[in-house]
Structure formats: C-alpha cells, structure tokens
Design brief:
Elements (H helix, E strand, L loop, with lengths): L1 H16 L2 H13 L6 H14 L4 H31 L4 H4 L1 H23 L6 H10 L4 H26 L3 H36 L25
Helix pairs in contact: 1-3, 2-3, 2-4, 3-4, 3-8, 4-7, 4-8, 6-7, 6-8, 6-9, 8-9
Length: about 230
C-alpha cells in the first residue's frame, strides 16, 4: 500500500501544480464515485502544493470540501435512482434477492446514520456504502449533513498540515492520528447513545387506542337511549 501511495503522490503534486483548485476539486469528485486514491493523501498533497505555489489555503479547503460533497452526492443519487433496479437484476438478484434487500433496508433504517458517518472515514468502503444509502432510502438532507460532519473533521486539518509542514505532514499526522480516532470514537459513541435514548422515548410513548365512534347526537360517556338503539 505504501508503494502505491509513493507512486501516486508525485502524480498528484504534478497535477495540482498545474491548476490546483479545479484539479483538487475534480480529483475529490472522482474519489467520491470510487477512484481508488485515499482522500487523506489528496488533502496532504493539496496543502503542500498550496504552500509551494503561495496560494490561498482557505480557498483550497473550500474547493476540497465542495469536491467531496459533489462526489459523494453523485454516488448517493446513482444509488437512489438505479440501486434497487440493479439489485433486482442478474447476477445481483441471485446473490441478494428480495429478502436480502429487505434486511438491508431494515439495517439502514436502524443504523443508517452511524453507518454513513463511520464509512466516510474508510477508503474502499465509502463509495459502496454511500451508493447503498441512496438505494435504501436514506433522506438526502440527512445523508449530506452526516457526510459534511465527517468531512469537516478531516479535510481542513489534513490540508492545513500539508500547507504547514509540507512533506513532513504525513509523519506529523501519523504521530497524532490516535487522537483523531479517539475523537471519532467519542463522536460515534455519542451518536449511538442519542439513538438509544430516542428509541426508548419512542417506545415509552404508546399511541392511545381510538375510542369507538359514538352515534350522532350523543355526548361522550352518555348511554344510548332506546331511540338511538
């Protein structure tokens, strides 16, 4: 994996030096739809090139955030429009089937928010999960809010590190990465606790059974007269 990263990094540096803002935007859009380049590496190289070319790091962060949102949204909407139809065609219908689709829908209904948030940090899992999020009916507003929440944690920090420390940024990030994972663990635990509390509150509030309809002209609690019978 490290050898692949070492091969990709010079290529990214060359591309970013020749039109950094739009190229970073485009690369991150492609990452969103499945290009196998780690987002973190893209952020670090983007920050380094921003420093080297004496460009505005805030504009770079904005371009990167927009690229993430657009790319992930494309994957979501592809799943929303074509996901279920694709799953019901050969060979996927043999592998998944209607029962599998129902189970997946139930899983995303119960754990969709946690799944979207956590998968955003995992290269190789992100795009398939976001495609399934659209396929399984997660609302777009909720999806993009969760995606933004995870991106705002990693994108600005990684680009700033690349801008501040250059080629040493990867080492600096590696030395302090456990703090980031601790923070993400606390956030994920908070989301889980919140969902548990919400589910308990929903279970505690049971709907009251509807009262039987009263004949016209009678007041609630009044016994029917012989005329009304």
């Amino acid at each position: 994996m490290q050898e692949i990263i070492n091969q990709i990094q010079p290529m990214l540096e060359y591309l970013f030096e020749h039109g950094s803002y739009p190229i970073v935007f485009g690369v991150l859009v492609l990452c969103g739809v499945g290009l196998p380049i780690p987002e973190e590496l893209t952020f670090l190289v983007a920050g380094y090139v921003t420093h080297k070319a004496d460009e505005n790091v805030n504009i770079m962060i904005l371009a990167a955030m927009l690229g993430i949102m657009v790319g992930d949204s494309l994957t979501y909407w592809l799943g929303r429009h074509y996901g279920l139809a694709l799953m019901r065609r050969w060979p996927f219908n043999k592998l998944i089937g209607e029962r599998g689709i129902e189970k997946a829908q139930g899983f995303f209904k119960r754990h969709g928010k946690k799944t979207v948030f956590i998968a955003g940090f995992l290269a190789g899992v992100r795009a398939p999960t976001f495609f399934l999020s659209g396929s399984m009916g997660i609302r777009y507003g909720r999806f993009i809010l969760l995606d933004f929440a995870r991106a705002i944690i990693t994108c600005p920090i990684s680009i700033w590190l690349g801008w501040k420390y250059g080629h040493e940024a990867e080492e600096v990030l590696g030395e302090n990465k456990h703090y980031l994972w601790i923070f993400l663990g606390v956030v994920a635990a908070g989301v889980i606790v919140y969902e548990i509390i919400v589910l308990k509150n929903r279970g505690a509030v049971k709907p009251k059974p509807d009262e039987p309809a009263k004949p016209s002209g009678e007041k609630p609690g009044e016994q029917p007269t012989s005329e009304s019978v």
